[in-house]
Structures are given as structure tokens and as C-alpha cells.
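To: structure desk
From: M.T.
Subject: fold request, one chain
Message: Could you run this one when you get a chance? Sequence is below, nothing fancy, just the single chain.
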Amino acid sequence: MAEREPISTAPKDGSRVTVYWTDSDGVMNESLARWDAGDKAWWAYTDSRTQKKIEPTSWRPQATDDDGDEEEE
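Reply: Done. C-alpha cells follow.
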């Protein structure tokens, strides 16, 4: 798995990345998110229908099949 990096280094080209952020209850979350250039903000789905503007602190690239994160059957 790729190491976390500062959010300031995350791509802002609309691609989805895994981000880490703390919610209002102080709970650390891991979510898929993308940068919206129009809003100048990060957006993540909190459930299958709801998006939320978040302030992530770090990120990591999406895992690929080559990363070895896949479980073998």
C-alpha cells in the first residue's frame, strides 16, 4: 500500500484519491474523494447518495492490482 502524503501534494485534476479526514465528532475517516476546481474544495461520498465537502489532512494514491492489495481466492 502506498504511504500517506500531505494533502497539499494531492492531484487536483478531478481524479479520485483516498483521503484521510476528521469529522465533527473527532473520528478519523478514510474516503474516496476528488478535488472540485469550481468550489476549490474536496468532496467525498458519506453514503451511496450523499456528498460532503471535507478538509482532508493527507492522501494516498488508489490501490491497483499491481499493488498486491487484492485478496487471493
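Reply (cont.): The chain has one domain: 5-59. Let me know if you need anything else for the meeting.
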